[in-house]
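Researcher: Going back to the complex we discussed earlier. I've cleaned up the inputs and rechecked each line, so this should be the final set. Can you rerun the prediction on the complete assembly and write out the structure?
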Amino acid sequence: MANSLLIVDDERDTSESLKMFLEMKGFTVRIAFSGQEGVAAVREAVPDLIMLDLQMPGGMDGWQTLKQMKQVASSVHVVIVTGSTPDRGLEQLAVQEGAIGIITKPISVDELVPKIHSFLQGSGP
Amino acid sequence: MERYVFNAHAAPILLTGVMMFASGVFVLLKRPAASVNRNFFLICLSVTIWLIPTGLGYLSIEPDLAQLWFKCDNFGVMFISVTVFHFVTSFLQLERRRAVRTGYLVAFLFGLVVVLTDWLVIDVRKFSWGYFPRWGYFSIVFFAIFFGYMAASFNSLWLEYRKVREPARKNQIKYLFLAFALAYTGSVDYLPTFGIPVYPFGFISIFLFLSVVALTIIRYRLMDITLAMTRGTIFMVVYALVLGAPLLVALPSQPQIERLLGTRWWVWLWIACAILATVAHYSNLYFQRLAENRLLAEQRRYQATLRRASEGMTRIRQLPRLLKLTVSILSKTVGLTYAAIYLIDMGTKRYALQASRGKDGQPAGPAIEADDPLIQYLNVHKNAVVLEELHLQHAADPGLREVELSLRHLGAALVIPSFIHDHLLGFVVMGAKRSGGIYTDDDLKVLMTLANQAALAIENARFYEAERERQAEMFHTAQLASLGKMAGGMSHQINNRFYAECIMAGTLKGIWKEMDLAGVPEPVKQLILKTMGDLQKIENDAVRGGDIAKTLLNFSKPGKAARITFQDILKLSMEAAQFRVKFGEIDYEPVVVDPLPSLDGNLNQLAEVFFNLMSNAYDAIKKKQEAIKEGSLKLLAGQTYKGKLAISVSSITRNGVTWLQAVVHDTGIGVEAESVPSMFIPFFTTKATAEKGTGLGLYVIKKIIENHGGEIEVNSTYGEGTTFTMYLPVAKEAA
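Model: Rerun complete. Updated structure for the full complex:
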């Protein structure tokens, strides 16, 4: 069965491109353009992995979204996607908040796919 | 029973004798180790033995007693020529030991003959000035020897004068020659011994000569004989005219004076002498000053210039300009053939040539080691070194020969040291004066003042230079920091844009790749392939742009120094590197020697250092693999290449301080020798533009290591690999 992914990012073009690419690579992909939409999508169906952008407009940033998603489905696997350079503090915070990892922007799609696979394996039952 | 009677003619002779002895002793005590001074004393001694008994002979009432004294006097005379010869040979540094020894032996034998027999001093004659000895024919043998040694002395001086090139030395020899020639007029005293009634004024010539030589040895470093001669002559003439002439007039008219002034006439004489002596003293001073002003006008002029220059020095803040100016002022105003300044290099502790002027006597080497004999000598004596003086002294102290060689090596006639807080900051090398003149005590005083002022000025300039560099550095750091902050603030925006480009370009590229292009017309197919290539380029550029932003961000990265271990650093950097470096494809050897002392540092920054080094090493290995594949790099037959990255950390002790030494070694492509020195320069990169790399990596690494109080070195050979060695200080308590 294809792994299901949820992309939460306010950048529509990017998200749609990414969806197209990842579907080509055999994933089932949904996209959400805000925190609220993301939480709603989780409520609808819990994906295998969520790629959550940290910086989003609309009063709900990545951290708040993460918190609410965890409330909806405590075992949900979330990877933080961020444009800032990762350091220990950010990693620790991500783990504390219940994320399983960080992906730093920018990242080439060729690197992204194996990364997603490794997160899926690490998060598998 | 009265044996002596007062005779005015004896007074100047006795007086000269006493002064001669005193000046001989004085010169000897000034520098007992120097053979020139010792031999000068011997001349004085023999002349004293000649003069004092002669005076006593004048005073004697009985001819027999007078003859005894004259025998004694001639005992001294026997030695005069050989002591002169001895002095000249030591002054010219000639090896004439046998001649000197023979001379002393012969003089002694003659002395015995003179004292014990009547062969030389047959008897005495009564002249208008008193008794004087009569010499027999035996004295002809003595004259032969006397003239022989004197001729040898003059000849040696003459030969040396023609051989020597240095103008100062030439001058010296010339004047010494003239001084001896002058002294030789003292031979007039031989005339009365053969019955010719010429007044024996030999003591005057001798006095003149000796005061000249004594003055030169003591005050003028046996150099500026012109000045000393002038001084001696003025002294003689003034005293002779003011004091001597009235006495000479008064003496023959003794009975008339006695009649005029009564039996206490000699009281008046003493009073007159006292007044005349005072007058003579002040006139002497006056004429001395007059002569000096004329003779030293040139010297005074440049000394004043130098003083003014030294006052202005501290206002110049650019070191190279200051040094150049100092050298040019010195050589112009003093009239030097050569001048140069050497300053200590704080790093190597060597004294390096900083500025020079003049063609002659260029130094052979650009730097003087701190253990050079000259440097050691300057450190001990803390005073100017005059080549001429060393030359005269080193017979007594062989160590000085080394110092002299150093001086000659530098082309120096004079070296003036500069001290700051007792440390030898540097020194000024001065060649010979163009005039051929010498460096007088006054010169040295002015030059030492100048050197001290220069030291202060140099210290000032160095401080300003360091301060300027520090400010530039601060400005640079501040620039980078603000750039970092800005980049930090914009990083989301920047990275989101790059991310969007990556994803879109990558997706489009991926879609085209999956597309079945069968049946598509060839031009369209070509266009699609071109588009795919361009999309790949866009993706690469976007990733690289993100890397640049990240590197710049390291300057604004938060995080304070904390107690950390190397395991922490390597773990964190591995985490970051694993996505870029495929450790499985190469031999990776991390070696950490446990237990290592911990260190105080910024974990993120240090992890960044190792992440970058690992990533660079990986790139280098890949590049070498490519080069082997392309055939531009050949392996030996039967060899395969996998590539190795080895990291080892250990603690070492350097100069009693414990450091953590981290070595990152790879067997990658390496760097061309000419590029190695530029590796740490910002935006220098050996990677092609299309490849990843920002050109900031190693610069940032160096800055991070230095901010931690550490050092980084690189060693690289093209085709062989690269080794980075870092030293980081251990945590304070851990040390």
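Model: Worth noting: Chain A is about 45% helix and 20% strand.
Researcher: Good, that matches what I expected from the previous run.
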